Amino acid sequence: MLQRLFVTFLLICSVSAFALAGTKEEIDGLLRQANSKGEFSGVVVATKNGKAVYQQAVGLANRQFSIENTLSTRFRICSITKQFTAVLIMQLVESGKVELDKSVADYLPDFRKDTGSKIKIRDLLLSASGLPLLPDEFYLSEDAKSADPSFVIKKYLQGDLNAVPGEKFNYNNGDFIILGAIASKIYGKSYEAILKEKILDPLGMKNSGLLKSETVIQFLASGYSYRDGNYFNEGQFQIQNFGAAGAMFSTAGDLLIWDKALLENTLLSKKLTDEMFVPSPKLGFIGLGSWIYDLKFTNGKKSRMVERQGYINGFCALNILIPAENISVILLSNTETQTLFQTYAAKGLSFQVIDALAGK
Q: How far is the C-alpha of 75 from the C-alpha of 268, rounded, in Å?
């Protein structure tokens, strides 16, 4: 009897190993194909139950010097930064220093009263403040003041509201710049210092931080666009101006640490993490700092996805969690691509990768 059970166990292990090898070959092929068409250049990593099940780099980190992407390459992670900012705010909620349904004016007394009193912290996290959008000139400005949240709020974010707060999704980097300013006001420190103290250092994320255009970051990929069979250098936005809304860099390995902390409630209680991972009844798929939706795989199975996208000239980033199955999938690209942002519609490279990993 024991011998028969042992043989059965070996057979199960052999089948699982074969399936995993098949999955790896399938994803390798998807990445090679996407890279050959100029649709993806970067790193893909995935874990299940805290263990790596896939990791691969493809393409070039720097085309001028033909430097290849590796698992250690650092990428701009763009609006994945917003997920970090959301957790910093939720930590303040947990400590009782912030309430989601209090207004911006409660925390930033200098904010325009008639608008600031209407916008809740929750509205900012849901990208539903109704505030005016930041203009292109802000992202291009080399004036050091454009990286100062207080200046940005005073100059660009105190205009009339475009919509009733909380009623309409209105993607706006300004919402998260304000959230970063609120955290700074409460802690009496810069957003960069808070990020390091509350998240990066405790988790040991040594390959992550905030970017400044003039600062040289070792192993940082260059960004490109691809048109008509040719690669072009990225446009020149001033990355530091994005601040708490999009100025971070990281590696796939560091983001796996981040995902593990989210899935295991290391940084927040389970109660508040669960609150972050529930979509707004009014706004549909919008959650507190992430997109939350149910995805149907090709085998008919459905899973709840927690997704955070990021895009800034030349860089595209995607972080997807499947909490119920303890799965994390990260795709970082230093070539502009839309193949990472159609997961919700069961299309594109990101869906193909996730379907191969989680849907079979």
A: 26
Asked if residues 294 and 305 have their Cβ atoms less than 8 Å apart, the reply is yes
Q: pLDDT by residue (tens digit) across 23-55?
A: 899 999 999 999 999 999 999 999 998 889 999
Cβ atoms of 161 and 130 closer than 8 Å: yes
Residue 168, C-beta contacts closer than 8 angstroms, at least 6 positions apart: 128, 130, 283
117: amino acid identity, one letter: S
* Strands 315-322 and 230-233, bridge-based pairing: unpaired
Q: Are 234 and 224 in contact (CB under 8 A)?
A: yes
Which residue carries 């009782």 as its tokens?
96
Residue 159 has a pLDDT of: 93
Q: What is the pLDDT of residues 79-118, one digit of tens each?
A: 999 999 999 999 999 999 999 999 999 999 999 999 999 9
DSSP-derived letter for residue 99 is -
Q: Does residue 255 contact residue 47 with C-beta atoms inside 8 Å?
A: no
Single pTM value for the model: 0.93
HEC letters along 220-232: ECCCEEEECCEEE
pLDDT exceeds cutoff 50 at 19: no
Q: At what angle do helices 173-187 and 149-156 cross, to 10 degrees?
A: 130
pLDDT of residue 1: 52
Is residue 10 pLDDT above 50, yes or no?
no
Residue pLDDT, tens place only, 340-357 = 999 999 999 999 999 998
Report the distance separating Cα 38 and Cα 336, nearest Å: 9
DSSP state of 196: I
d(CA 116, CA 94): 23
Q: Which amino acid is at 345?
A: A
Angle at 163 between CA 157 and CA 165, to 5 degrees: 80
**Alpha helical stretches, state H, the chain:** 2-36, 81-94, 104-107, 113-116, 121-125, 136-140, 149-156, 173-187, 191-195, 201-203, 252-263, 270-276, 348-358
Query: Which residue(s) pair with 51 in the sheet?
Result: 48
Which of 138, 141, 107, 103 shows the shortest CA–CA distance to 121? 103
Q: Are 196 and 3 in contact (CB under 8 A)?
A: no
